[in-house]
């Protein structure tokens, strides 16, 4: 069940994911910069003020965020939900899947969040494990050397904003899953730099990309 606190917490997390303050998020969406200030969340009489559906719609559009992704920002322990059956984050444990299996269907929802059956679980430090929707991919083979080796585990955060120079996991609509460095991104295409110099760099049209997610941590 949604609550006043969890909705406002989701807005705060949306702002944080886009490296904005709540005021900056409101400004980007064309709203009054004070719309999301903590002082505006209760009235002078102490009654709770809720953000309007119009305000939420505008910030989602301004940040390119889907409603399912926004729902994923709501902390499950606070009574919220996670998108499309994605695994709720637990301190120290997150879903784990091998790279070889990641290209098969049924393991991710449309937003790149883990879903379905067949996932294992791995224990990890609390900091990455507490992020909403994070999961782990186990490196298989030598295609990512020298940066990542066979058996290394990569922590992936779907829905996080990606920038040039970030290490990312990309899944194509053909089912190929790869870990690369984001060299350039435009509205029409992305350029990916290979981690292994023996493998070619890649340029993909955005119509070929199912999702792209940022690597935030690696066990090495």
TrEMBL record:
- Region entry Disordered: which residue ranges? 24-51
SUPFAM superfamilies per record? LexA/Signal peptidase
The organism's place on the tree of life at top rank: Bacteria
Q: Which keywords are on file for this protein?
A: DNA-binding, Transcription, Transcription regulation
A single Pfam family it belongs to is Peptidase_S24
List residues of the Peptidase S24/S26A/S26B/S26C domain: 95-216
Q: Which InterPro entries match?
A: LexA-like, LexA/Signal_pep-like_sf, Peptidase_S24_S26A/B/C
Keyword match Transferase = no
A Gene Ontology MF term for this entry?
A: DNA binding
Report what the protein is called: Peptidase S24/S26A/S26B/S26C domain-containing protein
């Amino acid at each position: 069940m949604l609550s006043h606190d969890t909705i406002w917490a989701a807005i705060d997390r949306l702002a944080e994911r886009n490296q904005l303050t709540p005021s900056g998020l409101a400004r980007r969406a064309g709203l009054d910069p004070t719309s999301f200030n903590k002082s505006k969340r209760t009235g002078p009489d102490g009654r709770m003020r809720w953000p309007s559906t119009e305000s939420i719609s505008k910030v989602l559009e301004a940040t390119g965020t889907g409603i399912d992704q926004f729902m994923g920002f709501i902390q499950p322990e606070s009574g919220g939900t996670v998108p499309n059956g994605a695994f709720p984050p637990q301190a120290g444990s997150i879903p784990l899947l091998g790279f070889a299996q990641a290209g098969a269907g049924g393991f991710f929802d449309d937003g790149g969040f883990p879903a379905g059956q067949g996932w294992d679980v791995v224990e990890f430090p609390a900091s990455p494990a507490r992020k909403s929707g994070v999961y782990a991919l186990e490196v298989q083979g030598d295609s990512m050397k020298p940066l990542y080796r066979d058996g290394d585990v990569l922590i992936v955060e779907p829905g996080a904003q990606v920038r040039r120079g970030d290490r990312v996991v990309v899944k194509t609509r053909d089912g190929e899953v790869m870990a690369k460095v984001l060299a350039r991104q435009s509205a029409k295409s992305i350029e990916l730099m290979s981690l292994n110099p023996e493998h070619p760099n890649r340029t993909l049209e955005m119509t070929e990309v199912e999702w792209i997610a940022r690597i935030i941590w690696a066990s090495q």
